[in-house]
Amino acid sequence: MISDFFAPAVLIGIITSGIRLATPYLYATVGETFGQLSGVLNLGVEGMMLMGAFAGFYMTFKTGDPWLGLLAAILVGALMGLAMAFISVTLQAEQGISGIGVYLFGLGMSELLFQKTLGTVETVSGFPALRIPFLADLPVIGNIFFNHNVLVYGAYLLVPLSWFILHRTTWGLQVKAVGQNPAAADSLGVSVARVRYLTVTVGGVLSSVAGASLSIALLNVFQQNLTSGMGFIAVALVYFGGWSPLGALAGSLLFSTVNALQNWVQVLGIPVPSDFAVMMPYVLTILILVIALRKVRQPAALTKPFERGEG
Amino acid sequence: MTRSPRKRVKPKDMMSYRRWLGPLTPVLAALAALLIGALMLMALGANPLEAYAAMVDGAFGSVNAFADTIVKATPLLFVGAGICISFRGGVINIGGEGQLIVGALAATLGALTLGHWPGWALIPICLTLGFLAGALWGAIPGALKASLNVNEILTTIMMNQIAVQGMNFLLRGPMMDPIQIKQGSFIPQTARFPITADLPRLSPTRLHAGVFLAVVVAILVWALLWRTTIGFRIRAVGMNPNASRRAGIHVSRYAMLSLLLSGALAGLGGATQVLGVNHRMFTDGSAAGFTGSAGFNGIVAALFGQLHPLGTIPASVLFGAMLVGANKMQRAVQVPSALITALNGLVVVFVVGSEIWRRRLASQQEAIEPTAATPVATQESSVP
Question: Quick one: which of A94, A274, A175, A30 has its CA closest to B94?
């Protein structure tokens, strides 16, 4: 049985599903990275993912068009992101606690809407796999890399895109300045509030898309608490990734591969209690936090509300 | 925060309304949440008055309903009293769910292995086991924070998931009820505890002695925080870690202590829950299946009680009532009880969102009459 594990088909299966399953982590982690770099810890990612997953699913279920579902998820995410920005930037609420409030709201609201509108677990035909011509026909790597749906490709394109935005544009510099030293950024004429509103809203949209990627691209179902903690892991992955999109990519891939591995361990019947296999990623996250925090410093103003004249 | 001179014109009058506005903010926040809830109910085609009336009736309409409310409030109070310690100490413990679970597991192990012991010895031992297991579950993130400055919000969340999987493993495997195995039904639950492990109960209601234990614990937490040096230091660290360090307080040690105590009380809550209500442990695979999200709702109750353990007592009853009443509401107006989870989230958001006005009032009040500002658990304070 253990030897099955190293059969090429199994390895390809693990890598392929690892790449697929990284999608929700990638969207959510990159989105959260923007917010945290500007100094806002959004702990409500999980709630936003659930709302996005429901909105995307419901719209797709009703119209049959996953693109409209994606649009609905983007709108819901933008609204929730704006609300979170209002709470943490304008009202300067304690971010660790208000994020739990947003999580509970998303958890309750998505379940409420689900039970009221659908009632039972339904399925939709979400985004179909999009074979990239020629590349998908390559032996071995063709299926691993070039035979996914559009939201999977989008997640991977997001990494270089956000890297470019953060490191090669003025706005990216402003984001980092606001997160490191808001008073200095403010004195140079950068609106701290505007930058943070935008990053948190972007984070909301990406969290929501992360949820939708589960409900209309990867699993094509919605049920209560569909994300079951992925949003919280995404927050941890931001720390793991050292507040960089490339780090987010590494963390998401590591996590999804561990997940894929654990699925295959169960499929192959390798005698590890499945509960321990499910537990593994969380233990790993704690270890990662311990290791990662010693290497990289977090944005100096993370979780600190900014008020002019406070120094 | 600038103070305008206008505010100092009539200090006496200003003080009186400020004194009232502070404690009133959570009530206003809850009213705002209920108002939004009413709009949501209307949007869902239900009559909000009818829905809320059904909720009140479901929570307080009969002796049994009231007893159920109090029983539901009990784990919230245990968690909430612990949250008062940790948030006052500047440590954000989101791990109530996991701490409840490990506390319940430890008590379960005790009740099942020492079942032949007399009740007067067995029950305290089980409660102590729950307390210790919760303390351990809080101490791990506490130690990581104290020694390596690992963010406790994230570690406590991860510890929740680890506890859930541990529970699932134990209840599906070594701790499964032998009868389930013999019958081949394999429902993931333990055997029923021996009767001697049952907490005394006020029949015919479900009211059990754990309720009184919770109230005593809340009072003890109040005494700890406001009548002992340790409590003073915990609060000092939460309010201003830098000043505390300069005053010679071992800041990271106290952060660890507040997380440990907070976890211990949640663990005690979990133990009380299995000994007083369920008399066995069971799982549906998720944390909420066992805890009913008490680990999160306890945070809501504590915030609502202004992080004061005595204020958390009525706050827990209120949220216990909402949870019990939600079922009746679901039957009366066909609105899923998940509405209450969403409303609880709004209460949290509104309570912490309205802190800004409370802080401003406090700083203005300080200008008139120098008193200590109300502490707010802040992340800044987590720097060692």
Answer: A94
Residues B144-191 pLDDT 10s: 999 988 889 889 988 998 999 899 989 988 888 888 888 888 888 999
Q: Which secondary-structure segment (H or E) carries A161?
A: helix A150-168
Domain ranges within chain A, ordered by starting residue? 3-123+141-295
Phi and psi (nearest 5°) for B46?
-115, 150
Chain segment A164-204, per-residue pLDDT in tens: 999 999 999 999 999 999 999 999 999 999 999 999 999 99
B25-377 placed in CATH 1.10.10: no
Whether the bond between B204 and the residue before it is cis, its omega within 30 degrees of 0, is: yes
The CA distance from A73 to A207, in Å, is 9
Contact of A303 with A88, CB cutoff 8 Å: no
Q: What is the pTM of this model?
A: 0.87
Q: Is the predicted pLDDT of residue B363 greater than 90, yes or no?
A: no
Establish whether this prediction's ipTM goes over 0.85: yes
Asked if B162 lies within 8 A of A47 by C-beta distance, the reply is no
Say which of A92, A102, A112 has its CB closest to residue B338: A112
Q: Which residues of chain B neighbour A273 with C-beta distances below 8 Å?
A: 169, 173
Distance from CA of A273 to the nearest CA of B (A): 7
Q: What's the gap in Å between the CA of B371 and the closest CA on chain A?
A: 21
As a whole number of angstroms, the longest Cα–Cα distance in chain A is: 66
- Angle of the A274-295 helix axis to the B119-148 helix axis, nearest 10: 40
Which amino acid is located at B295 in the chain?
G
Does the structural domain A3-123+141-295 have CATH classification 1.10.3470? yes
Query: How do the domains of chain B map onto residue ranges?
Result: 25-377
B354:A282 CB<8 A: no
- Residue B1 confidence class, pLDDT cut points 50, 70, 90: very low
Q: Which residues contact B307 (CB under 8 A, 6 or more apart)?
A: B83, B84, B87, B88, B375, B377
